[in-house]
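User: structure tokens for Transcriptional regulator, ArsR family, please.
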Amino acid sequence: MAGTDQESLDDLPPSAKLVFKVLEYNGTLTQKGIVEESMLSARTVRYALERLETIGVVDEDVYFADARQNIYELTPEADNALENSELPNAD
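Assistant: Done. Predicted tokens:
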């Protein structure tokens, strides 16, 4: 199985692509920040973040200002994923 079961950015649902673009444009955000910027429900954002983490384009870390929340940012692999996708680039 030479990469046939590997999910890419193009394979994700529109909500995950939107969350990706929100993080690309705004940088590091909490889940609450992503909900506000994307106008998606918290549940939809959680699911999108799970999918993005699964393909390795989003990292989750502790938000030290409020340890009850996590902070999300794009990984260096996100640039490669974007180059190989049909999504428009932020540049």
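User: Anything notable?

Assistant: The chain has a mean pLDDT of 87.
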